[in-house]
Structure formats: structure tokens, C-alpha cells
Amino acid sequence: MSENVRLAVYPRKGGPESITVVEAELGKLAPNQIRIDVHYAGINFADLMMRMGLYGAAPPFPFTPGYEVSGTIIEIGKDVRNRSVGDRVVAMTRFGGYSTIIDVFPDQSFILGPKIDLDAAAAMPVTYTTAYHMLVHLGNIREGDTVLIHHAAGGVGTAAAQIAAAKGASLIIGTSSAPKKEFVESMGMHHVTRGEDFIEQCKALTDGRGVDHALDPVGGRHLLKSYRALAKGGKLYAFGGSSAVPWKRPNLFAALWMWWRLPRFDPLRMMNSNKAVFGIHLGTWEKEDILQEQVKELISMHKEGVINPVVDSIFQLSDVAKAHTYMHDRKNRGKILLDCRD
Ligand SMILES: NC(=O)c1ccc[n+]([C@@H]2O[C@H](COP(=O)([O-])OP(=O)(O)OC[C@H]3O[C@@H](n4cnc5c(N)ncnc54)[C@H](OP(=O)(O)O)[C@@H]3O)[C@@H](O)[C@H]2O)c1
């Protein structure tokens, strides 16, 4: 008898209401893959952008989004040696994670052991790896460094704040919309309300120097402001373009406006001030071994209690449109997950 899988599909470019949840027949597992009974799937801002057709690295419509899942292995292919049925795992799926069951290659998965909760695990792969990749791998963050984090209350923002604190940052400045001030402060950051002059605040809080690291997922003109908030020798990480999607529906004008306002950095000026600008896109990062090392390191940091993912809310898979709307409405403080066990 064949088993069925339930999954969310983006049939075409559209708003949250365009997402459909369908049932499909489960195919045969490939000999070199494992099958995961998905408990939780992570929602990322990139999922919203790809639903709107604004994400270059997405597959063509129709497709199932979802970069990360946690769950239990229910079947292993006959050639797989290093995983067992019953293993609790977290997996980086690239796409397809919004599903009750998913097949992946074993090295896309990481065994969790009994102590890590599956909700915390699903909240980690994208957000924490992105933050770790920027601050630790590229940025070589050092004790005493100062850090500016935009979208500080969100998934990557809270992950970055925890990693920066774990590495001994002396000051973490976080920007967010006004209602999240207390939350951002509770995460150990100095809060600046979105839209306020964060350059001035960065300078004022560092005796005029500026910050050592600035994490900017906003894009457009905002990147130049983040660059100006840097100290000499500082590092800017350009890792998103949230200003391209101010609304729930695709708007080409907003996307073009964001792109048009992107700064063109002058290498001579960068040399003179020893500043660096990194472009980061985990979805197109090809050195899998480095990502895998990072995920393993993050899992052990979590086991040691050094980092602890903040899960804001968990929606049922059938309510995926509501989950997207919640993120569009800027309501999340931490990570949003889908419960795929329905
Ligand atoms: N390059 C990469 O590899 C990579 C990987 C992961 C994430 N990212 C980027 O990092 C950013 C954060 O991602 P995330 O998944 O952790 O999301 P998130 O920060 O948890 O959620 C979105 C939050 O961003 C803020 N925001 C700013 N502009 C927004 C807009 N136009 N619509 C809705 N919310 C907006 C809101 O917080 P406020 O209320 O504080 O404004 C909102 O709560 C995104 O730009 C994403 O594309 C990049």
C-alpha cells in the first residue's frame, strides 16, 4: 500500500493566500537517501521572497519551499551506513522542507541525540549558520568587538546577538521596529528604533569610533548607512534585501528601487579606512564541508547552553499562509516554525 505525504506548494508568484497544501503519493526512497518524518520546518524571510518571485536561487514554479527541518528518520536507503531508523535529526534541505515527509542525503542531516528539542533544532540551520558564517568565519569576531545588527528581533538577528555575545562582544546594537524594544534589550542589545539615526548612535556609543561589524539584510541605500556606522577596520556584511518587499504581494517597482539604490563602494576609500564589505548568500554557498562544520559547532554550542534559539511561534502546516502573513506583518520575535505532524 502506498503512503501519502502532505506538502505546501507555491503554484505561482503571489501573496500568502496563493500557497496551497496538497497531498501526494510518496515515491520509493532512493538507495543513497534517508526518509525523515518531519516534525518542524523553519520559515525564513527568503521563503517570502521566493514566493513573490524575487529570489534568484529559487527553483521554477511550482515548487515546495523550506530550507530546514527537524524530525525522526523513518527509513534508510539500502546503501546508507551512517544513519539509523529512529535517529532524531535536523537537516538542511535547500527546498522542500514544508512537508510531512522528506527524503535527503545523509550528509544533509545531523544527528541530535536525545537532549536537543526538535523545535529548537529546526530554528537553527539557516539563521545560526548565516550569523556564524558572517561573524566567525568571515568576520573573525574577537573579544571586545562591537556589533550592529539590523532586524535584531528576528531569526538571524537573535542568532547573531547570541553568537556575538558568546564570542565576547563588548557592545551589541540592535535595530528593530519600536514595539520590539524590550525584547531586543532582553537579548542583551542596545536598542535603536528602525528609522532612527543608527549611525549617530553607533558613534556615540563607541566614543566616535563606530562599530567593528555591521550586519545589513535591508539592502538599498541602507547599506551605505551601515558602512558609515563602521569603525576604521570594520566589516560590513550585505546579506539581504528586505526593503525590496515592503508588502505581502510582489512589487517589481520596490525591488527595482532597492536595487537602484544599492551603493557602489570605492576600493580606494575602503583601502584607506581598512574597511571590508562581504556579500553573503548561504543558498549559493558551495563549500558544503564548511557549512557542515558550522552546523556541528552550533549544535555543540547549543548543547553547552551557549546559544539557545528563540522560537516565537509554531503554526500548523495547513496554516502556512497565516505564518507568512505573521512574518510580513513584522510580528515575530525570534523564529517561526511549521508543525508538520498534522
Ligand atoms: N544571505 C543569506 O544567506 C541569508 C540567510 C538568512 C537570512 N537572510 C536575510 O536576513 C534577513 C532576516 O531573515 P530572517 O529569516 O531571520 O527573518 P526575520 O528577521 O525573522 O523576520 C523578518 C523581520 O524583519 C523585519 N523586516 C524588515 N523589513 C521587513 C519587511 N519588508 N517585511 C517584513 N519584515 C521586515 C521585521 O522586523 P522589525 O519589526 O524589527 O522591522 C520582521 O519581523 C532577511 O532579509 C533575509 O533575507 C539572508
Overall shape: globular
Gap from first CA to last CA: 21 Å
Oligomer: single chain
CATH superfamily of the largest domain: NAD(P)-binding Rossmann-like Domain
Sketch the major β-sheet. 7 strands, mixed
Task: Walk me through what this model shows.
The protein is of the alpha/beta class. It has two domains: 151 residues, Quinone Oxidoreductase, Chain A, domain 1; 159 residues, Rossmann fold (3-Layer(aba) Sandwich). 29% of the residues lie in helices and 25% in strands. The protein is built from eleven helices and 15 strands. The strands form three sheets. Strands 3, 4, 5, 6, 7, 14 and 15 form a seven-stranded mixed beta sheet that branches. α5 links the parallel β9 and β10. α3 crosses α4 and α3 crosses α10. It is globular and about 60 Å long. The mean pLDDT is 96. NADP nicotinamide-adenine-dinucleotide phosphate (NAP) binds next to α1, α3, α4 and α11.
Topology:
Layout: E1 4-9, E2 20-25, E3 34-43, H1 45-51, E4 68-76, E5 88-92, E6 101-104, E7 109-111, H2 118-122, H3 125-138, E8 146-149, H4 155-166, E9 171-176, H5 181-186, E10 190-193, H6 198-204, E11 211-216, H7 222-228, E12 230-238, H8 252-260, H9 267-273, E13 276-279, H10 288-303, E14 311-316, H11 320-328, E15 335-339
Parallel strand pairs: 8-9, 8-11, 9-10, 11-12, 12-13, 14-15
Antiparallel strand pairs: 1-2, 3-4, 3-6, 3-15, 4-5, 5-7
